[in-house]
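Our preliminary data section would be incomplete without showing what the modeling component actually yields. Below, a chain of 416 amino acids is followed by its predicted structure, encoded as tokens that our downstream tools consume directly.
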Amino acid sequence: MAPLTLIFLMVVVAGTATRLWLAGRQIAAVTRHRAEVPVPFAATISAGDHRKAADYAVARTRLGRIDTVIDALLLLALTVGGGINAIDLASRRLTLTEPWHGALVILCVLLVVSLIGLPLSLWSTFRVEARFGFNRTSLPLFVMDRVKGLLLALVLGGPLLLAALALMRYAGPLWWLYVWALWLAVSLLMTWAWPALIAPLFNRFSPLADETLRSRIETLLRRCGFASRGVFVVDGSRRSAHGNAYFTGVGRNKRIVFFDTLINTLEPEEIEAVLAHELGHFRLHHIRRRLLVSAVLALAGLALLGWLAARPWFYQGLGLPAASNYGALLLFMFVAPAFTFFVTPLAASWSRRDEFAADAFAAEHTPAAALMAALVKLYRDNATTLTPDPVHSRFYDSHPPALARIARLRELAARA
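Predicted structure:
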């Protein structure tokens, strides 16, 4: 067995075991506290809602354990099991030249992965989400979303993939630098174009109709120095009962988007507080910093791939008998996450710190009590567990646990 093969197997086994162990801890912790609402929420969340959140968290975590095992088996089957090589050999019957052959192999592998994951996605949507009253997606809409996503991936991702393979073939040893520049340019273009050109293919976006609420929001935007192309409501209720709010776009093409479910649930001052939190991410440069970090990490990853692509042992140790540009891309795409999984807690910790900072910003510009009330309603309506396992939460969660977040907001309210 090649050294890289052994290392890879050890990493996959360790990562899978860690995921399953964390899932077990989460299920045990949530089940243990299922019967009793935490004291800070006793007056605002009923025992029934608390039990529903616990059962929902357990159901999703159990489904996640199945997904973890399937992902690990699929990863091993595609790499050291020879799956990618088998698809490559089958594709050679078409006698395509490069980079067309390489693009076909990559697309076929991604299609296989998507099809294998489809049953679990259907189960999640039409069994788990439906069981807890969240799913509002019909089967035709589910299928249409998948078809649109596939066509969009072909139209937008196909040319980018061909360009990347061509650069790998003809641009010399520094091909990875040119591919990074291409990726960066396309990413920025997509971020700019997404709100107006792509997102409307999946949802309907309508200008906020409530004049009073819109006036409050525009006042808050001016106070925070934020310019946008408008405040929109998206028909999220067509697919789910979950509520959310987000920013999208860059530059002058920025939009503020509220789910219609959130607009119908929260009071105007609570919506304003949620928006102030999102504005905090903008004013505190969280979004810009994350974009910069993503660009640096992408550059480092492509530089590493540029080095690995010239090493025969990279291919032979991961199930490919010979070197190829498309093989290098596929192997790196599937293998890298197995090695980077163990830095997940660092990214999660960074994200939680930003969430606390955005909460503090919101408390400076709106009443902290309004944000607390909004969060409690969102926890209740989204069936967010109030009692996650601390280790599981520190490892994965991008947002602070409910108890810690509300406690911090109470401190801020007391200071105010």
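The mean pLDDT is 92. Residues 47-78 form the longest helix (32 residues). Preliminary results of this kind motivate Aim 1 of the renewal.
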